[in-house]
Amino acid sequence: MSDADQFLAEAAELLGPSGLTRDPDLVSPWLTDWRGVYTGAALALASPASTEQLAALVRLCASHGVPIVPQGGNSGMVGGATPDDSGHSLLLSLRRMNRIRSLDAEARQIICEAGVILQDLHEAAAREGLRFPLTLGGKGSATVGGLVSTNAGGTQVLRHGCMRAQVLGLEAVMADGSRFDGLTVLKKDNRGFDLKQLLIGSEGTLGIVTAATLALLPAFAGRAVLWAGVPTIQAARALLLHCERQAGDALEGFEVVPAHSLAAVLDHLPGSRSPLGGQHQWHALIELVADASSVDALPELAQSLLESAFSAGLVEDATIAANEGQAEAFWLLRDSIASAERALGPALQHDISVPVDKMPDFVSHASAEVEGRFPGTRAIAFGHLGDGNVHFHVLAPPGAVHGEWQRNEGRPITSFVYDLVTQWGGSISAEHGIGQAKLDQLERLGDPASLAMMIAVKRALDPGGLLNPGKLVPLAPREMTA
After folding, report:
1. Structure-derived torsion over alpha carbons of residues 105, 106, 109, 115, reported in degrees to the nearest 10
2. Of 176, 204, 172, residue with least CA distance to 62
3. CA angle at 62 for the pair 456 and 8, rounded to the nearest 5°
4. pLDDT tens for each residue of 315-341
5. CATH architecture of 222-337
6. Which site in 72, 77, 210, 238 is 20 to 30 Å from 364, CA atoms measured?
7. For 100-218, which CATH class?
8. What pTM did the predictor assign?
9. 92: closest CA among 175, 196, 197?
10. What are phi and psi of 280, to 5 degrees?
């Protein structure tokens, strides 16, 4: 019996028939990333049912030297949950570990296992009159473990911050199979490093998140969703500042959508319609929320905000959603941009950030530079203007072949974009992580001291290099034991 066969036999005995499969029909859908850019191979798909079972599996992998590639909802954008093509890795799914262990409404805390779907988390909180203040377009597939491991952002970062701000405690299995138990929440704890922060955003390279204690907020008693047309992204930034002054903490979200993206969604999404009648180069999606004490004043706040914006010449046209159904329709337009763009053809997705005040000028400058240097391409920016993070995508010329164009012509374009981002004092990854897609760019452009610290931490916590190799940390697995 080969080493691989011996490992698989022991893993099958440990996990049982529901916990390990090699059936190609069951495994293959999880071997390609959401964008269809990366496809790998795996020994098998493992689906443990508990933290204890996972810990035993990790110890087994360590004893056989089998790499582990953890995967949540497989909705990532940087190939961070896709194995390489060697077929030597074990693909690990925590989707069976999907229990909500507890929900304390008074403490406003919920303990979720890693496989809990974000939408299910939202619904569980809502049943208790609470909410989890992080959402994104992939809420129907994204898992808590994936959100923690990538420090996900979304459309409410403007007010509430990224996933890191929502995590109060963590449980994880480390590379040697030991269990890190940090779920208990303490207001004060100065016993050394805040170790959970190492795991948040580490993309499964330091440990495998199995559960998290998350902060909840009171459910808002009402919201007002506005859609405004503006002539430029600079005007959108001016409108954002106006909203911050007028609405204060009631401002929950502020997203920008260019005309091209809206048109793509309207073509792609059956039954959709533009919120405004005229043509506008840019659109702003604005959400205001209120608790019970201020909900009665919310309609007046929304109306006065728009009236003052019109008076100041900040908007060309605008509307307020008449009801919750229309509000959801506005957000669906925004959330459908990625799928609509994918239907158009090949594209390069750059999840970038620059200082908030510089973002409008960066978008204008970088778009012109990219389109001028690479004829036939189209640069599109949309997303979270309020926190300095937009998705800067470059669409391929007509006739480009998906996959082939990204691998060939796309490489110099991506390097050029990231050079511009670095020159403007920004980050090549604002919320999607590094994965394998940006690993070479991080090594090329990252701060040497920061990279050295990351490598040192990786070597200390995963000396065998078995946890999600080839992701995030610019270090080949064979170097781990050098």
Report:
1. -20
2. 176
3. 145
4. 999 999 999 999 999 999 999 998 898
5. 2-Layer Sandwich (3.30)
6. 77
7. alpha beta
8. 0.89
9. 175
10. -140, 140
